[in-house]
Amino acid sequence: MSYISLDHLCKTYVVYKKAGRLRREKTRVEALRDVSLSIEKGELLGMIGPNGAGKSTTIKILSGILTPDSGSVVMDGRVPWINRKEHVRHLGVVFGQRMQLWWDVPILDSYALLKDIYRVSDRDYRARLDELTGVLDLQDLLHTPLRQLSLGQRMRAELCGSLLHRPDLLFLDEPTIGLDSVSKLALRDFLKWENAQHGTTILLTTHDMEDISALCSRVLVLGHGQKLFDGLFSDLVSRYDVSRRVSVSFGPLLSIPELPSGVTMEREGDALTIAYDPRVLPTGELLSRLRPCGTIREMTIQGQNIDHIIADMYRELAL
Fold it and tell me: What is the per-residue pLDDT across 2-45, written as a single tens digit (0 to 9) for each?
């Protein structure tokens, strides 16, 4: 049996909209529609989709915060909203826009309170705190109030607090939002370390495709509350990565290659720039057509940006 199993999960919200001075209209929004999913222990799964796709609703149901309208969820033998006290002992959650640590007190005091809430022994607490603060580079910040930390420092502090009780499962909802490049790289390195070192199962939701590319081999795509894709991230990218751009400098250019229709080519002196779909013209075949045109002095092949690929997917699926 899978570590986490979701079967035919449905969740609907009632939304009220203003329809006059004294009148409101009630509408029902399907946040999740018949979503089924299984996650094995130790996986690092990425969940993507546009705003309103159902990502945060899924996280809240898995956390026990929300109860679904229908369907079932079993996580390591527990139903999150029924066995909630036992469930949260095995769970860590980080929301990128919400902090669990106390704003005006040193983060070490917040950690001490979390230690008591989760009933962590003094020995385990000290060992885990030393481990996490070392990896996350928090030793010099322990006596600093949360409000005095930068956004990247606060996020590292939040991660430390969510993992002090050694949870088996970590939910991350937009953890890199607003972070600079250095902080993002540090956070990604830590998540890979935590997953490899302790086998922590991690479920990551984000709009940053570089996070998914760097961390997750498997990705789940949600849209309109439905599961649209569940598989390898490389398969998802290759499915929608339909544009390549090749820049070639010859010394000199002796002839112009014959190219299929749909392939565009621009010439500037002895240089050619070719935009093509690898499904129509494989890169290997293109190179074989370029070799007789002269001695290649320099060549670069550029694929689509990952964000552009995902945006194309959203447009194709009408998300």
Answer: 899 999 999 998 888 887 777 888 888 888 999 999 999 999 99
The 10s digit of each residue's pLDDT in 90-147 is 999 887 667 888 999 999 999 999 999 999 999 999 999 999 999 888 999 999 999 9
Residue 90: closest CA among 50, 62, 127, 66: 62
What's the pTM value of the predicted model, to 2 decimals? 0.77
Question: Cβ of 3: how many Cβ atoms within 10 Å?
Answer: 17
How many other CB atoms sit within 10 Å of the CB of residue 245? 14
Which tokens go with 288?
């074989």
Distances (CA, A) of 49 to 54, 208, 212, 224, 266: 8, 11, 12, 9, 36
In this structure, CATH architecture of domain 4-9+35-238: 3-Layer(aba) Sandwich (3.40)
Distance in angstroms (rounded) separating the CA atoms of residues 41 and 4: 8
- In the chain, domain spans: 4-9+35-238, 243-303
For residue 23, give every residue at least 6 positions away whose Cβ sits within 8 Å of its Cβ, in sequence order, or none: none
Contact 93, 65 (CB under 8 A): no
Q: Judge if the upstream peptide bond of residue 252 is cis by omega within 30 degrees of 0.
A: yes
Q: Please, which residues bridge with residue 73 across strands?
A: 6
